[in-house]
What we know:
Distance between the termini: 40 Å
Largest sheet: 7 strands, parallel
Number of helices: 12
Strand content: 5-15%
CATH topology of the largest domain: Rossmann fold
Amino acid sequence: MTLVLVTGATGFIGSHLLPALGARGHRVRAVTRTPPAAGVPGVEWARIPGLETEPSWDPLLDGVTHVVHLAGLAHRTEQRGRDDAGEMDRVNGAGTAALARAAARAPALRRLVFVSSIAAGGPAEVASADAPARPVTAYGRSKLAGEAALAATLASTPADWVALRPPLVYGPGNPGNMARLLGLVRTGLPLPLGGLRNRRSFLYVGNLVDAILHVLDHPGASRRVFTLADDEVLSTPELIRAVGRSMDRPVRLFPLPEPLLRAGGAVGDVLARLIGRPLPFDSYAVDRLCGSLTVDAGALRATGWTPPYTTERGLALTLAELR
């Protein structure tokens, strides 16, 4: 029987992955800094300090056949202009490298699955793992460093690795951006986003979990990096209309030229600096609303993976919790 160690087990993705692993018959050892008060049936919990402290992985990997590495520092700080490269490197880069070194010593380990990020590839209108990686943020560079550490450290060991690069992941339990979008639609106010013609890929958490389960043992995934996303690619207006349909609420959009939206974001940046705290509408928010990023999932699909959820269904499941 397989024993899967999951890092970051209490996070957004981990909370969806643990029951899915159990349903597939895997034993699970969940590793986190703060185990929950009420455990998940069939899950063995272990506490570790932060990844930057180089936890003692060897006893935790005893008997483990697979690792799913979810833990890491997300890009919340650099979202508002605080790009802490040192902390990102220590947690996402060096922390993953330390886990890889321990994985190389674990005699039972067959595969380590690393959930990286689309940011590891850098800016591109169409993101593909085959394109040269040129990350431009500390977050992206730290995730790419984690991928490189896995490839180098496990190169000559029986254990192998897989890296998955998702775009924005949404789903129940991750209200963040989706909650703000829900709030906008719920107001019923006209929104000045009707003129945007961008194209963006998203990933429902159920599709990401399914992909993790798929690559856990698939021979065609060995020692490869994959980009993945939902099948559908949406513009910002299409996404807002899809949210409105899921809520059964009318959506009113009108066009405002993109330069004016970006000017409004710049004003938000100035106001945020003046009051000393971030505002919901700034240059970062405008970049996400106006920018394009489509993801080519062809390589992963060639191994036989197909996302089981449509974006419409994923949004409906997400918004059902937020209503």
